[in-house]
Amino acid sequence: MSRLSQPNLLFLLLPALLASGGGAMFFYPDPQASLLEHLLVDHGGARATNFSAAISPCTNYVTEVGEPSRNSGRTTAAQWLRVAFHDFVTADTTTAAGTITGGIDASIGFETARAENKGMSDLIALGTVMSVHLCGGKAIPYRPGRIDALHADPTTGVPEPETGVDETLEEFGRAGFNRQDAIALTACGHTLGSVHHGGFPEVVGPEAVTPTNTNGGSNFDSTRGAFDPLVVHEYIDSTGSRGGALVTSFNETARSDLRLYESDGNQTMRGLYDMTTEAFQDTCAELLGRMIDTVPSGVRLRDAIAPMAIKPVNVTWDFNGETDRLVLSGNIRILWGAPTVTKVVTFSSGDLVTSLSPEPEKRYTAYGMSDTYFYPFSIPGSAIGDATSFTVSGDNLTTQTFPISRAGQTFFVPSMSTATGTSASFTVASSTDSGLGEERLAVQVAAPVAQPLTLAPKIVTATVNLIKAEDTKSGFQFWKGSYDVYQQVTGAISLTLTQGGETLDHLLLGAGVAGW
Ligand code: HEM
Ligand SMILES: *[C@@H]1O[C@H](CO)[C@@H](O)[C@H](O)[C@H]1NC(C)=O
Ligand SMILES: *[C@@H]1O[C@H](CO)[C@@H](O)[C@H](O)[C@H]1NC(C)=O
Ligand SMILES: *[C@@H]1O[C@H](CO)[C@@H](O)[C@H](O)[C@H]1NC(C)=O
Ligand SMILES: *[C@@H]1O[C@H](CO)[C@@H](O)[C@H](O)[C@H]1NC(C)=O
Ligand SMILES: *[C@@H]1O[C@H](CO)[C@@H](O)[C@H](O)[C@H]1NC(C)=O
Questions:
Q1: How far is the C-alpha of 375 from the C-alpha of 366, rounded, in Å?
Q2: Are residues 146 and 273 in the same domain?
Q3: Which Pfam family, any one of them, does this sequence belong to (predicted)?
């Protein structure tokens, strides 16, 4: 496993992935699902996540930038798949107790040290789904809910180029994949990326290293950034890369793909060859889906995340800077909608109806299949009354209702909360007549910091009791707190406001575009 290159994972999102549903009211349907949906759906344009920007275009290598990246001969999308495969393949589905150990649990983070890598296993699965889909494959249903391992898998043994085919098939079999599955899964994986001289000099010779291929990547097929059946076609037809270095290596011992593909007389590879592209993609999506959904017994995966047709984002209470008035603002993201049709927001308090207009001339792709429109809104608290929800409707839309907290109910004030390099300070507002006692409000802080010897960040957590502040504003009392991690924070800081154990609000500080 020491030769496994790891993608530069975008850990800025991890604390948010930790947040459970609770009472957080402005993430729909809850913080975790909202964020994962955002990662899956918002790919192009100004509101795209950096997660997808790292993968697409699919020849990207995100660990380096500019010329060094283009000349590296490495591929982030491919690295995601390989990491997922290596995490998965130590699964044991054949234990005497009938349970599954290992699988996609991010135990791969434990090469050297115990880590607090919460959220990693869902990210490994997500990286696979996004890489396949953004690079030309099908949308594999993405089901969150994996639980990160606290130690390495008990089972060891990842197939290597020199591994004999019987042992390789045994390792796949233990993980629940028979010979045919193993051949097809490997062909599906090996349609992206390369075998590199840097890391595998016994498979790829030094001649592969050039100024424009500094790691000496030998591509599996002629389209290293496309998830397509070409690797199968070039193998059977003996054209192009002829199946790649694990078929053609100068070193016969290292021809693991050839041994695997030939182990049933090329029958499975011929079957894949004869398929339509559509059928090949379905086969790969099914096998890769099985791979990422191989999880230890006891883990219950949640329903697949589906793109939301209507999604309120960044919906929050705050004070308008100029007037000090309380406002509810945000954006309604609409998928599949024509920009010309009218969209309206109705509050449960009464007949207030606001007609929305999309941001002018801005179009964003979503899940590689449609345009997205963002409809900003900003409404004074006084106009909303004591509404507890709002409804979005419009032409060609199935009307949907979303809960909010009442105007004046205790909340984080985003414009009065900041994250600096190592610390966060935050302000909470409560109505002056709420009679809130000082001891009642606390903020749970979760901040990611780098930790040595593992690719996962450590999440530092703390509970901060809030202090009543001197200043008031339009009938509001403020409460303040801060927390210093004394270490560079590497991503968004997650804040959860509680009152006697009950969750009142949730805020992500410093998440930027990627974190909404
Ligand atoms: C017999 C089983 C397998 C063996 C022996 C094997 C071996 C290897 C080796 C030696 C590399 C080169 C890595 C590098 O130079 O960076 C590689 C690359 C890769 N493998 Fe496999 N592999 C196997 C199965 C799979 C499976 C089942 C998948 C995914 C479903 C997969 C996905 C990948 C990908 C995407 C790459 C390209 C990585 C990159 O370009 O950075 N492999 N594999
Ligand atoms: C061929 O590969 C095997 C297994 O990795 C290695 O032990 C051997 O040294 C390699 N031979 C050459 C000539 O590189
Ligand atoms: C399998 O296919 C490869 C590539 O076309 C070919 O070189 C090899 O001889 C075939 N092996 C068998 C057993 O048919
Ligand atoms: C209406 O919605 C469907 C999907 O729900 C979409 O395919 C179609 O393009 C939409 N039509 C318009 C005019 O927005
Ligand atoms: C996203 O990536 C771009 C460059 O690829 C960078 O300029 C930007 O700061 C990143 N945004 C976040 C929120 O990390
Ligand atoms: C949400 O707010 C963040 C931070 O202010 C901003 O960067 C992002 O673009 C907003 N997203 C949407 C969809 O409004």
A1: 15
A2: yes
A3: peroxidase
3-state DSSP call for residue 3? coil
Q: Convert 146-183 to b/e letters by CB count within 10 Å (16 or more is b).
A: bbbbeebbebeebbebebebeebbebbebbbbebebbb
Closest CA to ligand 1's atom 22: 186
Same domain, 131 and 267: yes
Q: Are residues 492 and 391 both part of a single domain?
A: no
Q: How many domains does the chain have?
A: 3
pTM: 0.84
> What radius of gyration, in Å, describes the C-alpha atoms of the chain?
25
362-383 pLDDT, tens digit each: 677 777 667 788 888 888 888 8
What residue's CA is closest to ligand 2, atom 14? Answer: 202
Give the pLDDT confidence of 204-246 residue by residue, as tens digits.
999 999 999 999 999 999 999 999 999 999 999 999 999 999 9
373 and 506 assigned to the same domain: no
Distance from the alpha carbon of residue 66 to the mean position of ligand 6, in angstroms: 27
Hey, which of 59, 61, 85 would you mutate to test ligand 1's pocket, going by the most ligand atoms within 8 Å of its Cβ? Answer: 85
Digit-coded pLDDT (tens) for 268-321: 999 999 999 999 999 999 999 999 999 888 888 989 998 898 899 888 899 987
Range(s) of the domain holding residue 393:
310-403
Judge whether 34 lies within some domain: no
Using the atom order of ligand 2, give the atom closest to the CA of residue 201: 14
